[in-house]
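Incident log, entry 3
Record: FkbM family methyltransferase (293 residues)
Problem: checksum mismatch between cached and fresh output.
Input:
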Amino acid sequence: MWIAEETVRELDRPGSRDELARVATRAARAASGEPIEILWDGMWIRRAEGISFPDPELFQTAQPRWDRWCHMATKYVCDADDYWFHVYKPKLGDVIVDIGAGRGEDVFAFSQKVGSEGHVWAIEAHPTNYRVLNRFCELNGLANVQTLNVACVDVPARLHIETLPVWESNFVRSGDATPTSFPVEGVTFDSLAAEMGLDHIDFLKMNIEGAERQALPGCRNAMMRTAHVCIAAHDFRAGRGEGEDFRTLGFVREFLTDCGFELITRDEDPRYYVPYHVHGVRRDASGVDDLGS
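Fresh output:
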């Protein structure tokens, strides 16, 4: 561990966390050579490049990737440009919907790109990730972001979200609770869009680990008011033997085509997940503002 377990056990409690923060900051700076800071503000936080990153598992990390920890804000912006803005080019004042917002890694770039005149709707199902997402937005002044703690589905239901060792892989499912799952309310995005008065969406991103098969049918009406989309399919997880429910690429392509989008994929990209990012541009995008609800 990068901080001795006995030190964490001794100091990670009320009255001692400021000392643990000092110890951790010294260790992080010595290891990274960068002015990273560790602090406690309701949860453990890493601060680098002037940006605060809430991190509940901070002291559970065996060996941090210091290059990532010290340049995470830069990585967030570069990743958004690469993955989500490959076709869609954001403008000030745009409205973005992020279904599967995680801990704010894409919300950070979305918020910057649309500016104070724009708006980002960030939807995250897992309660821990949602708590981190809210804190991330609060700490970094992302005032143009509104968060919702629900799962997007085709039929309203009470569901569960599984907690995996790599939190980015958490997924929503039906069935019984397990020791590693949390209950979550499943709603259609169409109902959320109506409730929020979303009459136009410039870009809708969805990255929900196979649940896109259930979520997309509940977005159909809103899709007719959306100019650009990028849906992450997850066939590569099926290919790893994690279950055929993750094989969604064909469904995503058919659904978006039926909703009036021209599709673009990067089939030759060597990264195992990028060819499964399905970008869509509405064929009648010039008139999308005039589409009815």
